[in-house]
Amino acid sequence: MGWNERVIKEFRENNGKVGGRFEGAPLLLLTTAGRKTGKPHTNPVIHLRDGDRHLVFASNAGSDEHPDWYHNLVAAPQVTIEIGTDEGRVEPVGAQAVVLEGEERDRWWERQCEIDPSFREYERQTTRTIPVVALNVLDLSADPQRSRMIAEQLGKLHAGLRAELTAVRERLDRAVAGDAASAAGPDLVEQLRRHCLTYCHNLQMHHIREDGAFTAFERLFPDLAPVIARLREEHATIERILEGFEAFLGRDGSDPAQVRAELERVVADLEAHFAYEEEQLLAATEHV
Fold first, then answer.
1. pLDDT by residue (tens digit) across 125-142?
2. Beta carbons of 242 and 260 less than 8 angstroms apart
3. Most confident of 73-77, 214-218, 245-249
4. Whole-angstrom distance, CA of residue 203 vs CA of residue 68
5. Would you give the distance in Å from CA 117 to the centre of its chain?
6. Which of 67, 69, 110, 168 has the fewest CB atoms within 10 Å distance of its CB?
7. Residues 116, 111: Cα–Cα separation, whole Å
8. Mean per-residue pLDDT for 60-77?
9. Ramachandran angles phi, psi of 94, nearest 5°
10. Distances (CA, A) of 38 to 34, 79, 94, 132, 225
């Protein structure tokens, strides 16, 4: 386990508190979608709270390169953050990233340097302007009707994931059947593996974003708490299944027939999860 993973583990196990060099620092966990792979990436970052938004600073410890998480959120601004709560647990929250500019950026950068002078030192070490990013937390209380739009959008995203899954299955079926066009080229197996991995990464990122949105739904619809608890448990179960599938692809993914069989084990749980989620969230938001 690397340094980043150890900090993340400690953060989640201790309601957002960690020791070592970040002891006492205001940390949050920021999860972005990889701009090239779509794979989820989680990073601990120092933040400054401003009402319902969180400001983060792409200092990269004074490096001349922006951190990867910054490039990721510029490409895909919908992110998930995790923060400690008064209830003693870390809570995922959906947020939209906005890069600040001009006077607003400068004002918050100066504020952060006053609070933590190490950021001033980071600024001295590089010629780049260090970006300041506002993470605007999803809040449905001011616009309850938005919850219906989000529930419907989740259904559309599920439809897209189902379509991707169908494409993967069809490609595997053609390979298993020995279709000449499908089997052309020595890198067929690698193409299939990449296709499957891309699907897994998209699904993982989708569930992480949903976990953040669920927090806003739970605040607006307290009666949904048992449903959301079940959905999060299902996310965790599917995550373990996907991890096993990815490990299989790396270890034994050379036979399209075996890949097809392993994929079906993923599909059964996934379809049941999608159906339950759509039914419950659409019903809850029907009359808002």
1. 999 999 999 999 998 888
2. no
3. 73-77
4. 21
5. 31
6. 110
7. 9
8. 96
9. -75, 145
10. 4, 12, 17, 23, 29
Name the β-bridge partners of 79: 95
Which of 89, 69, 66, 85 has its CA nearest to residue 77? Answer: 69
pTM of the model: 0.86
Whole-number Cα distances in Å, 180 to 79, 167, 175, 260: 42, 17, 8, 18
d(CA 6, CA 16): 13
Residue 13 class from Cβ within 10 Å (0-12 exposed, 13-18 middle, 19+ buried)?
exposed
Cβ neighbours of residue 52 closer than 8 Å, sequence gap 6 or more: 136, 137, 139
Residue 103: both structure tokens together: 């006077």
- The pair phi, psi for residue 96, each rounded to 5°, is -115, 125
SS3 per residue for the chain = CCHHHHHHHHHHHCCCCCCHHHCCCCEEEEEEECCCCCCEEEEEEEEEEECCEEEEECCHHHCCCCCHHHHHHHHCCEEEEEEECCCCCEEEEEEEEEECCHHHHHHHHHHHHHHCCHHHHHHHHCCCCCCEEEEEECCCCCCCHHHHHHHHHHHHHHHHHHHHHHHHHHHHHHHHHCCHHHHCCCCHHHHHHHHHHHHHHHHHHHHHHHHHHHHHHHHHCHHHHHHHHHHHHHHHHHHHHHHHHHHHHHHHCCCHHHHHHHHHHHHHHHHHHHHHHHHHHHHHCCCC
What is the rounded CA–CA span in Å between residue 183 and residue 171? Answer: 10
| Greatest Cα-to-Cα distance within the chain, rounded to the nearest angstrom | 66
Tell me the C-alpha distance between 238 and 274, whole Å.
11
| Amino acid type, 113 | C
Give me the domains of the chain, ranges plus CATH numbers: 3-137 (2.30.110.10), 145-284 (1.20.120)
Radius of gyration of the chain (CA): 21
